[in-house]
Amino acid sequence: MYMKIHRAASQLGSMPGLKFVFALTFATVLSACGAQWNSFNPELAHPVKVVKKSSSISVNVAAEDGSVSLTHQARLKAFVVDYVRRAQSPMLVLTAPGIGLAASEAKGKIVRDMLINAGMRPGDVILKPGLSTMGGKNAVVLSFRGYKAQLPICGDWSSESSYMPNNANHSNYGCAYQRNIGLMVSNPRDLVRSETPGTVDPTRRTQVILQYFAGEDTGSTISTQEESGVGTE
Predict the structure, then answer these.
(1) Span 5-35, pLDDT tens digits
(2) Options 3.10.100.10, 3.40.1170.60, 3.30.1330.60, 3.40.190.10; which CATH number does 49-149 get?
(3) Which helix (H) or strand (E) covers residue 129, if one does?
(4) Which residue ranges make up each domain of the chain?
(5) 229 in the Ramachandran plot: left (φ > 0), alpha (ψ -120 to 50) or beta?
(6) Hey, which residues does 49 pair with through a beta bridge?
(7) Is the pTM of this model over 0.85?
């Protein structure tokens, strides 16, 4: 058997044209396999879709004294955190219709003050009396628009996992990675466009990097006099 293989290899070596064709065919097959592997992109196979949607909650304000329960206060604060993280519009404060303009504005101002105390800027809160379409008469609806990530659904095991003659990836390959990206991103808008960088001091940044590489302290030093708060005048 060895002699037959050796004889065939010798014959191939004595035929330059056939040898060239064989080498070209072998290289083509290898390049095709490489292209199939390198062309895989999890962002295309399992995309995280980003859409702009409205988010809303309702907070009940008692008609008697204008109080808000602790549960609804916590709901409002969590909603403010979500607003700061990904909002693309002002926060609308909508009160129920049919309760009178004075009562409607009073309820809206109570919630507006709570939003500002929770960290929102006054200019980002817009009061819309009598325009709520959800909840009861005591409900004050908060609403804003922002980006949301629609995650890929993993678990597609339809393709063969042990036999891949074309060197293709499994149908579920890369899905968990993409799903985790969508779950971890703070503002899904960053998947559409990046945040505009702020101003930086390149000199200070370079100094900090060099100090870090040298194993030195990268923070600013405070003198004993500054720590004690004693002036020199």
Answers:
(1) 455 555 555 555 555 555 556 555 555 554 4
(2) 3.30.1330.60
(3) none
(4) 49-149
(5) left
(6) 150
(7) no
